[in-house]
Amino acid sequence: MEPTTGRTVPDFSRRRVDYLRISITDRCNERCLYCMPEGLPSLMGRREILSYEEILEVVAVAVDLGFRKFRITGGEPLVRQDVACFLERLGRMPGIESLGLSTNGTLLAPLAGRLRDAGVGSVNISLDTLDPQEYKRLARWELADCVAGIDAAVRAGFPSVKLNAVLMRGTSESQIVPLIRFAHERGAVVRFIELMPVSRTEVLRPETFLSVEEVRNMLRAETTLELLDVRLGHGPAAYYRTGEGATVGFIGAMSNLHFCDACNKIRLTADGKIRPCLGSHLEFDLRPALRGGGGREAVVEVFRRALGLKPAEHDFRGQYHPGRTMTAIGG
User: What is this structure's pTM?
Assistant: First the structure.
């Protein structure tokens, strides 16, 4: 079947959707309390998860539809076998203008140089705390492995290295300034992200939620914050420069009522569902189109339906009950 031509990605005023985040696995070597608490549903079976060939087929369709920005996520994407070979193939695909990776960093050190050579231009690394004991309590892993991954990414020369810290009241307050300093010393940027109900509704409670505005006020008591009129990457973060010259980002999905106004992304889950919004249960299954013999046009039609029904805003501020965990949806 001949490729579909012409841009069919809709323009929602400020929302031109050209960014696809692709989860390649729901597995993770860490088990963060807000992401994979005990008692969650079992992991996907191997047959449920898209093969690399199927993912590349989806990417080819997405490029044809006008998508230019792609990010590989998980779970933890680096736990999947042959991930470096897959990224090398992906990096050679025509039409991709930006290729990023989201990772917890603990498995990154031996792969960083190869992934940079493969065309990965940006790496987002989860780092909630610099306290080794607290890191182990939160993630059930060793902080030293994450730091080694961050340092390897810096040495490999990725144009963009960002550290993502999820804000948790009672845990994050003492880590704000150390994380900013840690990132700045390495030429990286740290971004503080509000807690969202991505695993269980009860994860988000008044005693655990810490807003980005509270964090900015904490920083203003110690330094100056200058709002920057820049967009570093393709996401929704607002960036500031501190009096010491560090750049820090804030992602306020819960407190910013205009958070979704310029959303430019959709997600592909590891089991082949197109998810137009992280904070919505709406999903469109690509596996029948990929495996049922419908060809390229069947995949295009699923994309069109998903894009046409992309919500105006997420549902997290209501009594949202996650149907799937963040590791199943993709970070």
Answer: 0.90
